[in-house]
Design brief:
alpha/beta; eight-stranded mixed beta sheet
């Protein structure tokens, strides 16, 4: 039983601490991309695709932030892919008197169908994907496209930053994205980030593969570069801003949906686990996307296993007490909803909720559950 206890401890620690620590140790010595280009004098042509479903509250702000880019205006256009909205989304887009702004009105078919149609309708060399509810700084597009000046780069991920006005669970969301950003930065130095951030990323048109309905678009699209022998890099200075998800129900639904679609993506891209073909990337993918997703199961098992070794005293009693304390703090943080308790309770609540969502998502995936349609508003 002690062996099982230490095995579970090791997996949990490696999934969240050991892997990032390993990256931090080795990247100073084995780096392919230490510094990425931050600007480009003569850039490739770019099409920015924004899939939108009932985004009347956000679409004008989104388009305005795209039109304010310092990237040469003659070199990029914007495609709003209206996925059967029944609000004023299309009407708002039509009011823009700018030849760079294009509207593609589609029947409700899901995000994947909209993105596939947008890629087919646009014509530029680089395709940029961005959500309708995040805002860009004026240099975002320049920063995102600059790494394509390196011929080895096939896809680029930007950085989605959660605004500091987010409260309660949104605080955990922000810190988690900072944690993910550190990992992607280290992975990039080794040659490839494991995947892009869905809020803002880009790929060379020639590397795009039609998107299935039931996968996470960021992972599936961006790894098209890896499969074709080019690099996927993370550009931390290409920033988009979004709001965190403070509502516990919405946070849980989002985590379940993302996990189910993420596991489906891994299954469809399972060839990437072939370490003899993809080398270090396969190891990073296994550590980042697979082991971590199973950590909640190991953490759940750890508590009852810990009970069976309590008779050994000392460390085992202390760890058991820490687990009980964490669960109590997390539940209190979720109940309090960020009103009175310190932020650390909200953080614990975020971790518990995310872990439960991960575990639930994996179970639903194994039982055959798939997500093809969803409304963005349900997860905000």
């Amino acid at each position: 039983m002690e062996f099982l206890f230490w095995f579970l401890i090791s997996i949990c620690i490696y999934g969240y601490i050991g892997y990032p620590l390993l990256l931090a140790i080795i990247t100073p010595y084995f780096s392919r991309y230490q510094q990425l280009p931050q600007s480009i004098s003569t850039g490739p042509s770019v099409s920015v695709l924004v899939a939108a479903y009932n985004e009347e509250k956000n679409i004008a702000i989104k388009i305005d932030s795209l039109l304010s880019q310092t990237y040469p205006s003659s070199d990029f256009d914007i495609w709003v892919l209206d996925d059967g909205s029944d609000d004023r989304t299309a009407e708002i887009v039509k009011n823009y008197d700018d030849q760079r702004v294009n509207l593609l009105s589609l029947p409700r078919g899901g995000k994947a169908t909209a993105l596939n149609a947008g890629v087919a309708s646009s014509t530029k060399e680089i395709i940029v994907f961005s959500d309708a509810d995040n805002e860009w700084t004026e240099n975002t597009l320049m920063r995102l496209i600059s790494p394509f000046s390196l011929l080895s780069v096939g896809a680029v991920s930007g950085h989605l930053s959660i605004r500091k006005n987010s409260k309660h669970l949104g605080i955990g969301d922000r810190l988690y994205r900072q944690y993910e950003a550190f990992i992607r930065k280290c992975e990039t130095k080794l040659g490839n980030a494991v995947s892009a951030d869905g809020g803002i990323f880009a790929i060379r048109r020639v590397l795009y593969q039609d998107l299935p309905q039931d996968v996470t678009d960021d992972f599936y699209i961006s790894t098209g570069a890896i499969i074709n022998g080019q690099s996927l890099v993370y550009q931390e200075t290409a920033v988009a801003y979004d709001d965190g998800v403070d509502n516990a129900g919405n946070q849980l639904r989002r985590r379940i949906r993302v996990t189910v679609r993420g596991m489906t993506s891994l299954w469809r891209r399972r060839e990437l686990f072939n370490i003899f073909r993809y080398g270090v990337y396969s190891f990073c993918l296994f550590s980042h996307k697979l082991i971590r997703r199973f950590v909640p199961f190991f953490a759940i098992l750890l508590l009852p296993v810990n009970i069976f070794v309590l008779h050994n005293g000392g460390f085992y009693i202390a760890l058991f007490s820490l687990q009980i304390g964490f669960y109590l703090c997390a539940v209190a943080g979720l109940i309090d909803n960020g009103r009175r308790l310190p932020k650390s309770f909200s953080m614990a609540g975020f971790v518990l909720l995310s872990s439960f969502g991960l575990a639930s998502g994996i179970v639903q995936f194994l039982l055959g559950k798939r997500f093809t349609f969803w409304s963005p508003e349900e997860n905000r």
